[in-house]
Write a structure and sequence with these properties.
Number of helices: 16
Shape: globular
Distance between the termini: 25 Å
Strand content: 15-25%
CATH architecture of one domain: Distorted Sandwich
Strand order of the largest sheet: 1-2-3-6-15-14-11
CATH topology of one domain: Beta-galactosidase, Chain A, domain 5
Radius of gyration: 26 Å
Helix content: 25-40%
CATH class of one domain: Mainly Beta
Number of strands: 32
Largest sheet: 7 strands, antiparallel
C-alpha cells in the first residue's frame, strides 16, 4: 500500500497539473512563448499575440547589448549589459519589461499591494507621488527587485539577482497604466520623488551618483516569469516557486535547541519577571535608561499576548518544570496564570493589559489579537497545569468566556471585531485581525463538542479567507498599524491547519497553501550586503529568512518564528519541501543575536536570552544620509516567547 505521504504528494501533483490545464484552456490554447526581434527591440509573444517587450531607454555615452536565456517554458533571464563609450561623471541607466496589458492587480512584495489603498495608515499609496512614478530601493523587496502584475491574459513577474557589490545597488519602479504595466529597473540606487523614511513619514527623495569610465560596464540580470491569470491570485504561485528555487540558501550558525530553551527561560526569569501590587508576571521588555543600563519598560508594560506574551511564557515555565524539575519555573508559571485568570469581565471579555487594572483605566480597548491569544493559551494552560498536578478550572473558564462573548457579538457576514470596549461595544471591525479568535473557537469545539463554537469559527474563517482570495492580501494584524501586513495571516494559517486536523477536509490544506504563498511575499530570499562600518556588517546580521512587518512598517523582525510549526506540518501534508526549507530559514534567521549574557551590541552587553525586535534593512527608520543603528535596542518579550513556544510545539520532530 502506498504511504500517506506519497498519496498526498501524488494528489498535489495531480491538482497542479489540472490547474495548469485549466489555465491553458482559459487562455484558449497552450502558451507558445517566444522572443523575437522587432523595430522596438526584443518582444515576447504567445504565438502571434504580443505579451510585452524589453524596454531599454537610450542613455547618452552608453551602448548596450542584450542576451536572453530560456530557463524553462515560463521563465527567461534577460541580461542587459551597458558599456560606457566615454568617461561619464554621472549615469542613469534603465531597463525593464513592458507588460502590454492593463493590470487588475499589481504588487511589489512587502512594499505595495495594488497601491496600498486599504487602511488608515499613511504609507505609500499608489504607484505615483507628486505626479511622478515612485522608485524604491531593492533593499525593501524580499525577492530582489520583485514586481508582479496580473494582466488580462497573463501574470508577469520580474526580479533580479541580488547585488554582489555595493556598486551594483539599484532600484525598481512598477508603473501601471491604462493599457500597459512597466516593470522598470534603475541604476544607480535611488528613491524618488520621496522616500518613506519612518511610519507615516516621508522625506525628500534621494539619488546616488555614480561615474563610469570609458569601457566600464553595468549589468542588469532580470528574470521574467509568465503564467496565465488564474482566480484567487494563484498566478503568483509559480513565480514564487521559481524565485525560491533560484535563490541562494545560506545557513547562519545558531545555538542548539537545548541552549535556546535554556536562554529563553533565563531571560524570562532573570530579566522579565515583575511583581507590582497585585501583579505577578512578565514585563513587556527592556530598554536602556539615561545611564545606559537595561531596565524594564516603565509604562504600558504588562500584556497577555502580542508583545508581552505573558500566557505563552507561563506555559513555557510549566514545561520547563516538567523538563528540569525547577520549582521556580513552576511557581512563576502558575503565579502568572493565576494573576491573569482574574482579569475576566462579567460579559465574558478579558482585560488584556494589566496596566489598566494597576492604574484604574477602565476604558482600555480589548483587541482581538490579545483576546484570541489569551483564549488559546488558557485552554493549553489548563491542560499543562493539570499535568503538573495543579487543578485550575478557572483557566478553561476564562477561555470559554472569551469565546462565548465573541459568538454573541459576531456579525451576520462572519466578521468578528478588531477591538471592543470593556462594556462590549465594538470599536472597529475592519481587517483580518478578528481571525485571531478562530483558532480559539476551533479548540473550544474540539474540547466541548458544542456546535456553536465550530459554526461561529467556520463562519468567521470563511469571511477572512474569502477576503484574502479576493484582495490578494490580509490586513491590520499589528496593533500599531492599520494597513496591509503579514501578521494577520498567521491566524488564518493556524486556523486552516487546525480545521484540517479537525475535519480531514483537503480544502483547508489548499487554503493553507494559498495563505503560505501570500506569507512568502514577505520572506527575505537573499542576504543583503552593507558597507564596512554599517551595523549589519559590524555584527554579521543575515537577512535571508527574515520577514518584513507591513507596508506601514518597512523593517525586518523575527515574527515568522511563530508560524514555523505550521510550515513544517504543511510540508508533511503536501509533500512540498519548500515549506520546510522556508521554515528552517526563518528559524535560523530568527535566532540570530540571542544573547548568552556576554553579547555586546551597540556598546551595551545584553542580558542572557534577550534579543532585539527590529532590523532596519533599508532607509526606513533613518533620516536621509543617516548611517545610524540598523539593530535596535528594544529587547522586547515576544521573540523569546515565540522561540520557546515553537520549541514546545516541535518537540520530538
Amino acid at each position: 500500500m502506498l504511504s500517506r505521504y506519497y498519496l498526498l504528494k501524488s494528489a498535489r501533483i495531480l491538482t497542479i497539473a489540472v490547474c495548469l490545464v485549466l489555465a491553458a484552456v482559459s487562455c484558449g490554447k497552450e502558451s507558445d512563448l517566444h522572443w523575437k526581434k522587432s523595430a522596438d527591440g526584443m518582444v515576447l509573444t504567445d504565438g502571434e499575440s504580443l505579451i510585452g517587450k524589453l524596454d531599454i531607454p537610450n542613455a547618452e555615452g552608453i551602448s548596450h547589448k542584450v542576451r536572453i536565456e530560456t530557463l524553462d517554458s515560463a521563465t527567461f533571464k534577460a541580461t542587459v549589459t551597458f558599456k560606457a563609450v566615454e568617461d561619464m561623471d554621472s549615469v542613469r541607466l534603465e531597463a525593464g519589461f513592458v507588460h502590454e496589458s492593463e493590470s487588475g492587480f499589481w504588487m511589489i512584495p512587502a512594499v505595495s499591494y495594488n497601491g496600498n489603498d486599504w487602511g488608515r495608515g499613511k504609507e505609500p499609496k499608489g504607484a505615483k507621488a507628486d505626479g511622478q512614478w515612485r522608485t524604491v530601493s531593492f533593499r525593501r523587496t524580499p525577492i530582489p527587485g520583485a514586481m508582479y502584475s496580473e494582466g488580462k491574459r497573463y501574470a508577469v513577474a520580474t526580479w533580479t539577482e541580488a547585488p554582489k557589490s555595493l556598486k551594483e545597488n539599484y532600484s525598481c519602479s512598477l508603473r501601471p497604466e491604462e493599457n500597459r504595466t512597466d516593470h522598470h529597473y534603475l541604476w544607480p540606487e535611488e528613491e524618488m520623488p520621496v522616500t518613506y523614511a519612518n511610519r507615516d513619514h516621508f522625506e525628500p527623495g534621494w539619488r546616488n551618483q555614480m561615474p563610469l569610465k570609458k569601457g566600464e560596464t553595468v549589468e542588469f540580470r532580470i528574470y521574467i516569469h509568465l503564467n496565465p491569470v488564474q482566480e484567487g491570485h494563484r498566478s503568483m504561485r509559480p513565480f514564487l516557486d521559481k524565485a525560491w528555487e533560484l535563490s541562494p540558501k545560506p545557513q547562519v550558525e545558531i545555538y542548539s535547541n537545548d541552549k535556546l530553551w535554556e536562554l529563553g527561560i533565563r531571560y524570562a526569569k532573570e530579566s522579565l519577571w515583575a511583581e507590582e501590587g497585585s501583579y505577578k508576571g512578565f514585563s513587556i521588555g527592556l530598554i536602556l535608561d539615561e545611564n545606559g543600563f537595561w531596565r524594564q519598560r516603565p509604562a504600558w508594560k504588562y500584556e497577555i499576548g502580542w508583545c508581552g506574551q505573558n500566557a505563552s511564557y507561563a506555559i513555557s515555565m510549566l514545561r520547563d518544570y516538567q523538563k528540569t524539575g525547577s520549582k521556580e519555573s513552576l511557581d512563576k508559571g502558575i503565579a502568572t496564570l493565576d494573576t491573569w485568570s482574574k482579569c475576566g469581565l462579567p460579559n465574558g471579555l478579558f482585560i488584556t493589559h494589566y496596566d489598566n487594572i494597576l492604574h484604574n483605566h477602565p476604558d482600555g480597548a480589548l483587541d482581538a489579537c490579545n483576546l484570541g491569544t489569551a483564549a488559546v493559551n488558557f485552554f493549553e494552560a489548563y491542560d499543562v497545569a493539570k499535568e503538573c498536578g495543579m487543578e485550575r478550572p478557572e483557566y478553561e473558564r476564562v477561555a470559554y468566556s472569551i469565546c462565548d462573548f465573541v459568538v454573541s457579538d459576531q456579525q451576520e457576514n462572519g466578521c468578528y471585531a478588531k477591538g471592543w470596549r470593556p462594556d462590549g461595544e465594538a470599536i472597529y471591525r475592519e481587517g483580518t485581525i478578528g481571525c485571531f479568535l478562530v483558532p480559539a473557537m476551533v479548540e473550544a469545539y474540539r474540547r466541548s463538542g458544542d456546535q456553536k463554537y465550530l459554526d461561529s469559527g467556520l463562519k468567521a474563517y470563511r469571511h477572512y479567507i474569502s477576503e484574502l482570495n479576493e484582495n490578494g492580501f490580509t490586513t491590520a494584524g499589528a496593533l500599531d498599524t492599520w494597513c496591509i501586513d503579514k501578521e494577520s495571516s498567521i491566524s488564518l494559517l493556524r486556523s486552516a491547519i487546525r480545521l484540517y486536523r479537525l475535519t480531514g477536509s483537503k480544502e483547508y490544506i489548499e487554503d493553507a497553501v494559498a495563505i503560505s504563498y501570500y506569507l512568502s511575499t514577505w520572506l527575505w530570499h537573499y542576504d543583503e550586503i552593507y558597507p564596512e562600518g554599517d551595523n549589519f556588517t559590524e555584527y554579521g546580521y543575515h537577512t535571508f529568512g527574515a520577514t518584513s512587518v507591513s507596508v506601514q512598517h518597512n523593517h525586518l523582525d523575527p515574527y515568522a518564528l511563530y508560524w514555523v510549526p505550521e510550515w513544517m506540518e504543511l510540508s508533511d501534508l503536501t509533500g512540498d519541501p519548500q515549506w520546510k526549507e522556508k521554515a528552517e530559514a526563518i528559524w535560523r534567521c530568527g535566532n540570530q543575536f540571542v544573547s548568552d549574557g556576554t553579547l555586546e551590541i551597540n556598546g551595551h552587553v545584553r542580558p542572557a536570552g534577550s534579543q532585539n525586535e527590529a532590523y532596519f534593512e533599508c532607509s526606513w527608520g533613518f533620516s536621509t544620509g543617516d548611517n545610524g543603528k540598523r539593530i535596535n535596542d528594544w529587547l522586547v518579550a515576544w521573540p523569546g516567547a515565540f522561540r520557546l513556544e515553537t520549541l514546545r510545539r516541535l518537540e520530538g520532530r
